[in-house]
Specification:
Helices cover 42% and strands 4% of the residues. It has 137 residues and is mainly alpha-helical. Strands 1-2 form a two-stranded antiparallel sheet. It catalyses: 2 a phenolic donor + H2O2 = 2 a phenolic radical donor + 2 H2O.
Length: 137
Amino acid sequence: AHTIGQASCQFFSYRLYNYRSTGTSDPSLERSSLRELQSICPASSSSALAALDKGSKDVWDNMYYKNIIAGNGLLESDAELFADGSTRGLVSLYARSGNDFGVAFARSMVKLSNVGVRTHANGGDGEIRRLCQVPNF
C-alpha cells in the first residue's frame, strides 16, 4: 500500500544521517534520492513529509517497486523487500507488471478482510486503534 501517501521524517531520517549508529547515511539509498530527502528532512526536523512513492505519490501504480529496485525505497522495510532473497522476485515481478501487482494486491486485501479482528467485544484482546501509533485507553 506504500504506492500512495507520505511518511513523516521521524520514521526514516535515521537512514539519512545516522544509519545503524554509524554517523553516516544508509548505503542502500541512491545518492540523488539521499540529497533530495536530506533537503526535505533536515537533521533538525521530524515533522516534514516525504512521498512513499517517489514520482507518483498520488497515483496507484507499480512505480513503488521500480523505486525500490533503483535504491529509492523511503522506509527501510521497503528497501529490505528487494534485499531479501525471499521477496526480491516479487519486487521484480511487480516492477515489470503493474497488472500482476494489482491482481496480487486485490487478492491480499480480500484475504485480509477475512481474518477477523479479535476485539474485547468478541472475546479477544485486540483493539481497533483510533490513532494507529497509540493504544486506545
